[in-house]
Amino acid sequence: MFEKFSVKHSVIIIVSILLLDQVTKYLTKTYLHLGESVHVIGDFFRLTYVENPGMAFGLRMENTTMFLILSLFAAGLVFYYMYKLRNESWQLQLAIAMIAAGAIGNLSDRFIRGSVVDFMDFEFFDITIPAFSFLGFDFSGYPMTRWPVFNIADMAVSCGMIIIFAYILIKGDPDKAPAKEATQTNPNAG
Questions:
Q1: Is residue 185 included in any domain, yes or no?
Q2: Helix, strand or coil for residue 19?
Q3: For residue 95, is it within any domain?
Q4: 41-80 burial, b for 16+ CB within 10 Å, e for fewer?
Q5: Catalytic positions, please?
Q6: Structural domains in the chain (count)
Q7: DSSP per residue over 143-165, as a string?
Q8: What pLDDT, in 10s, does the model give residues 116-159?
Q9: Interior/surface letters 166-190, b for 16+ CB within 10 angstroms, e for the rest
Q10: Residue 1 falls within a domain, yes or no?
């Protein structure tokens, strides 16, 4: 394969994922009614049209203004890392491009529509997330009898994060590599 992405590669990946995300959301809104579910593979996989005003996978945060601010901050962080890791391996650049595409797809929905269109609905196992407070924010509990309904943007973000975790487990943290090299080449470095 190739060692590094060019900006062109990243743009192609971002635009491709973004187009697929927006087209599938448009088709969902066009052909399904809100709350309607179409069985594709029995109960295991359905196309279910929901609008998600909350976080990924249907998790809700009560303070919507703070949620938008955190979403913008997270998107800014993704683009910071896209710039910072521009000379790293193609795997990291692919992962960051996927995360950026997902962030753009869902943020554009949130700003244009006020919510995100989700439609992929899978049955895995029941999960209960208890209510909790974190950094002064109250998160309501969330019982799940099905996996949360999601979209292409959510999938891109999740797959990008899996690639990053796998990369770090296999090759190590790219942020620590330059410091390690500097220590090896300069015996006086701390």
A1: no
A2: helix
A3: yes
A4: eeeeebbbbbbbebbbbbeebeeeeebeeebeeebeebee
A5: 118, 154
A6: 1
A7: EESSPPPB-HHHHHHHHHHHHHH
A8: 999 999 987 777 888 888 877 787 887 877 888 999 999 999 99
A9: ebeeeeeebeeeeeeeeeeeeeeee
A10: no
